[in-house]
């Protein structure tokens, strides 16, 4: 059987090419599998980071709300303290006014009785 010129060489070249392509496909499949593993890990990392951010946001919000309540309580206590002090000062002023009135009356009576 006669073979055309170069047929064996061309078949050998095609076999080499097919072997090379088979190896490249194997490497590509391996790389694709590795990429899927990495992508899956990245998805898990993103999910974990989102959960951590959500937890941080909730903790921060709770902390700020507690601080706001503390400040409101402090403001109310301060206002109550000022009201109490104001009441005491008003009572003291009223008492002093009575003392002044008594002193004026006593001095007036003294002047009327002849300076004694």
Produce a short descriptive summary.
Helix content is 91%, strand content 0%. It has 116 residues and is mainly alpha-helical.
Descriptive report:
The protein has 116 residues and is mainly alpha-helical. It has one helix and no strands. The chain starts with 6 loop residues before the first helix and ends with a helix.
Determine the N-to-C terminus distance: 164 Å
How much of the residues is beta strand, in percent? under 5%
Structural class computed from helices and strand pairing: mainly alpha
Oligomerization state of this entry? single chain
Percent helix: over 70%
| N-to-C series of helices and strands | H
How would the global form be characterised? rod-shaped
Low-confidence stretches: none
How many beta strands in the DSSP annotation? 0
> What is the residue-mean pLDDT, rounded to a whole number?
90
What would you report as the Rg, rounded to the nearest angstrom?
49 Å
What is the count of helical runs? 1
Biggest pleated-sheet summary: none
Protein name: Permease
């Amino acid at each position: 059987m006669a073979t055309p010129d170069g047929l064996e060489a061309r078949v050998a070249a095609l076999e080499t090419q097919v072997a090379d392509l088979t190896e490249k496909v194997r490497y590509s499949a391996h790389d694709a599998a590795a990429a899927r593993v990495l992508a899956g890990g990245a998805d898990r990392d993103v999910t974990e980071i989102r959960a951590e951010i959500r937890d941080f946001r909730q903790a921060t919000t709770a902390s700020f709300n507690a601080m706001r309540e503390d400040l409101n309580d402090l403001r109310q206590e301060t206002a109550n303290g000022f009201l109490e002090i104001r009441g005491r000062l008003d009572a003291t002023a009223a008492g002093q006014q009575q003392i002044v009135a008594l002193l004026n009356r006593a001095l007036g009576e003294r002047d009327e009785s002849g300076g004694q």
